[in-house]
Specification:
Elements (H helix, E strand, L loop, with lengths): L6 E2 L5 E2 L2 E2 L12 H10 L16 E12 L3 E11 L4 E6 L5 H19 L3 H9 L14 H9 L4 H14 L3 E6 L4 H13 L5 E11 L5 E10 L10 E3 L8 E8 L5 E8 L8 H11 L4 H16 L3 E4 L4 E7 L5 E8 L4 E3 L8 H12 L29 H22 L1
Parallel strand pairs: 6-7, 7-8
Antiparallel strand pairs: 1-2, 3-8, 4-5, 5-6, 8-9, 10-11, 11-12, 13-14, 14-15, 15-16
């Protein structure tokens, strides 16, 4: 049981609150869309730190995110979130007055998580862009990692990218069923899941009590009903096969259950997706542009030119980022350009810190070709277009000269900050 919240005005006078939804017969009812929009606009309603204590911030990736399943079936994640420590949170909304749907969604929400875990980050980015308009939207050429840097204050993009991949592939995802009320029958299902699971996922039930003021303002009060319990003990055996490139790790888990019995589970953990080294990128530029000699020429010209110009580089899963390391900030890479197998995109240095420098960089780049939307040069949420190498053959020399000059400017700015 819980009490009723009290809301006071500036003079200390209590404001009357009316509980909406649940069993009310007078028509004051919520819709699932009301709840979706509430947590999208205010992610702090999600008790994510109960599950991920190392997380400090959470951002919404969108609502009604489309997914395709085997057998030509499809579904939509109601709300998807990302934390600043690299965890995804899948939230499904169900109303108290529809208990059968709530029981069905328990299986449905795990299907969503399994599907996400089998997708690449680029595939996830594509479906996120197809979602309903959210409070913050992933831009057309923006990656999830760039989105996290912008909205979650992530500093080390490389470490964050590895964390996202690791949690996603290992299944360490938060599954949360939320609604205006949770039935006893669903509590029982949740208790059974929590008692019998030794998997790394987190599962919880969240009630959102909603109160209406006389002026029609809404007060949302989140209450966590059920969360996964800590597993008592693990005994883990790791076996790695001889050939590193074919390595597979088998883990045997012994879980001491509350009844005193021991349940044994075995699972195979596949290696994390490798990062794209300079050598691997060079090979991909050659292979993925086989039908375009111009594409191969431009890609290799820029790759070798950046290396010869004193650029620092950092591998990523699908691209290699080039820039200058900032020794005063734990060698953080100030990126200026990312090269992929068939395309590139520019990165404005100090974009978050200096608006005028960002715009000036975009204007200089657009003198070569239209890397940035001319109508959105002032919009920090917009990112560089991703032209293919074959389309840059006419400007490859000028582009490399531009990048050399920009590198020298960044070095000067970093030295001035020391």
């Amino acid at each position: 049981m819980s009490g009723t919240p009290s809301l006071f005005d500036n003079n200390g006078v209590p404001i009357e609150l009316t509980l909406i939804s649940k069993r009310r017969p007078d028509g004051l009812k919520l819709t699932e869309e009301d709840l979706q929009r509430a947590v999208d606009a205010s992610p702090s309603l999600i008790p994510y730190r109960e599950f991920f204590p190392s997380a400090r911030r959470l951002v919404s990736l969108g609502m009604e995110i489309p997914l395709s399943f085997p057998g030509e079936k499809s579904g939509w994640i109601d709300n998807l979130f990302l934390t600043d420590d690299g965890h995804f949170a899948v939230v499904e909304m169900k109303l108290w007055r529809n208990p059968e749907a709530v029981r069905e969604v328990v299986g449905q929400i795990f299907q969503y998580g399994l599907t996400l875990g089998a997708m690449s980050l680029r595939d996830i980015e594509n479906v996120v862009r197809k979602s309903s308009q959210a409070s913050r939207q992933l831009a057309a050429n923006q990656t999830l990692i760039e989105f996290a840097v912008e909205h979650l204050g992530v500093d080390d993009e490389h470490a964050y990218s590895n964390a996202v991949e690791k949690h996603l592939r290992s299944g360490e995802v938060l599954y949360l069923i939320a609604g205006d009320g949770i039935h006893v029958s669903v509590d029982a299902i949740a208790d059974w899941i929590n008692a019998g699971s030794g998997a790394p996922f987190h599962f919880g039930l969240l009630e959102l009590d909603v109160y209406l003021t006389a002026s029609k303002q809404k007060l949302y009060v989140p209450r966590l009903r059920v969360k996964t319990k800590e597993i008592g003990r693990h005994v883990i055996e790791v076996t790695v096969e001889a050939q590193p490139e074919l390595a597979k790790v088998q883990i045997r888990e012994e879980t001491v259950q509350s009844t005193g019995g021991i349940r044994e589970d075995r699972r195979v953990v596949t290696p994390e997706k490798p990062l794209l080294s300079i050598e691997a990128l060079e090979g991909l530029i050659r292979s993925e542009n086989m039908g375009s000699p111009e594409g191969v020429d431009v890609g290799l010209y820029l790759l070798h030119g950046l290396q010869d110009s004193g650029y620092d580089s950092r591998p990523m899963p699908t691209e290699t980022s080039f820039g200058i390391r900032d020794a005063s900030h734990s060698n953080k890479l100030v990126s200026l350009i990312n090269l992929g197998p068939k395309y590139l995109h520019l990165r404005e240095p100090f974009k978050k810190d200096d608006f005028h420098a960002m715009r000036a960089f975009r204007e200089r780049a657009n003198q070569l070709t239209e890397f940035f939307d001319p109508s959105a040069l002032d919009d920090r949420s917009k990112f560089s277009r991703q032209p293919q190498y074959r389309d840059l053959a006419a400007i490859k020399e000028r582009l490399l000269t531009f990048l050399k000059k920009e590198r020298d400017m960044v070095v000067t700015q970093l030295q001035g900050r020391e």
